[in-house]
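Record pair follows.
FIRST:
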Amino acid sequence: MDFFGAKEGNCTVKQMQDFGEDWSTANYACTTGGSIKPTEASERDANKIDFVKGNLAWYVLMQDPFFKSDTEFAEVIMNLTGTVIISDAGSSDDAASKIQIIKPAIVGDVQKEQFKNIYTALLLGNKATNNLQVYRCSGGTSSNPNSCTGITGSLQTISSPWI
């Protein structure tokens, strides 16, 4: 069944993920361009979108072996870029999603650092005299892309060899 263009929407997202097409090219192929049947017939599930819920920045970072091997550094990058965490708001199948937005560490000009000592850590590395404090993954970190679904409520100190 096709509800409100869901079939074309899924096709468009799939074209963008599988073939690297921009939205307008993918949307054309899935509506008037006639590629909806071949796209749906490809080996991937027609209705599957890779990221549905969890921590978006963590999901992307854990695709890279460098960040998988150093999850503390991945936490620093996640703080720098910010992230969106999507989770279920209720237990029923039709429950709305809860969306939590974590703002980036650096917003606006240099004077508006949200966390403690980000600039010092980035510029001086392990020669920095101040401790770097960021929000961390609650419950610890894992190289699993679907982990880090909660963020600590207060700033935590990171003490890695690269700082």
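SECOND:
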Amino acid sequence: MTSTSGRRAARSGWVTFVGAYLALAGVLNLLWAAGALADKRNFAENELVWSTLSTWGWIALFIGAAQLLGAGLVVTRKGAGPWIAGFLGFLGLLVNFLAIGAYPIWSAILLAVNALVVWACTVHSDEFF
């Protein structure tokens, strides 16, 4: 085994981790958005920091869709994938932090998932290339 193939095998774990967790964050954001847009009974709309639950639902929908696309870029090892994944993880952190009043437990779970994506993209960025 050459050193190149050994390095390739060693770095594939973090690429898979970021791709899987970003896809998980995307799916969870899409579910949150669908719930916020379809059935507002399960949310505390008066606890939102800004705007209405419908606005946050649409924001979460776009962030979730972008996170799924970003996960695909990371897993296929496209050039800008890690930077896009880190940025989308940060956007996910921001959205879930600002919407934490509407559904606290779900937002806390998404905060942890997005924080892990940002952490892996920043600490292990050299392993993506």
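COMMENT: The chain has a mean pLDDT of 83.
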